[in-house]
Input
Amino acid sequence: MAGRLDGKRVLITGAARGQGAEEARLFSAEGADLILTDITEEEGRAVADEVGATFVPHDVSSGADWDRVMSVVGDQFGRLDGLVNNAAIYARSRLVDTSEEDLRRMLDVNVMSVFFGMQGAATVMAENGGGSIVNVSSVAGIRAAPGSFAYSASKFAVTGMTKNAAHELGPLGIRVNSVHPGFIDTTMLPGNDEARAKMARIVPLKRLAEASEVAALALYLISDESSYSSGSEFVVDGGISAT
Output
C-alpha cells in the first residue's frame, strides 16, 4: 500500500524529541525521505537512526545555520516538498517580569527560526513547482496565555507570518499553514503530575494530547490531502480555544 508521503522530501526541525520526533516516525512510516535537525545532537541522531533519516545539528535561531541546512537539502534531495518548523522553546513569564533578554531569546528561537525556514524553503520549493510549509504555533498564538507573555508574543508572530507567507507564496504553488497545539504531554509541558492533572481538567476532552496527535495533523498538512488548504490555523487542543 502506498504511503501518504511517498516520494516527498521533508525537513523537520526540533526533531530530537516530543512532537518533532513523532512527526519523524509517522512521516517515515508514510514514505517520506527526511532530514531532521535539532540543537540536541545525541537524541536527534538517535531518532534519525531509528527512522532512517539524515540528521543535521542545527541552531534554528542562526541564519548561517539555516544556510548550511538548506545546502544539505540541496545536496541530498535536490528539492524540498515539505518543511515543518517545529523547533521552539517555552518559558513562563508575566509582562512585568519579562526582561529584554528573555523576550529577545524567545523571538530569536521561535520567530526568527520560522522566518529563516520559510525563506529558505520557499526558494527551493519555487524551483520545483511548490510544496507545503507547516509552522507550529500554539493556542497561545490565537488567544491570551496569562503568565506566558514572551511565548505568546512569539507564537502570535508565527500565526501572522504564516498568513502573510501563504498570500505571497501561493502563486508559486507553496501552501503555508499553522498548527496550534494545546496541552501536549511532552517534556516541554511544565509542571509535575499534579499540575498536569489540573491542566487536563480544564480541557473539554478531559485529557492531555499525545505528541502523535499533533504529528497526525502535520502529516495531513504536508500531504496532498490538504492540497487546497493554505493560510489557515489548524487547532489541536481538545477544545480549549472553544471555551
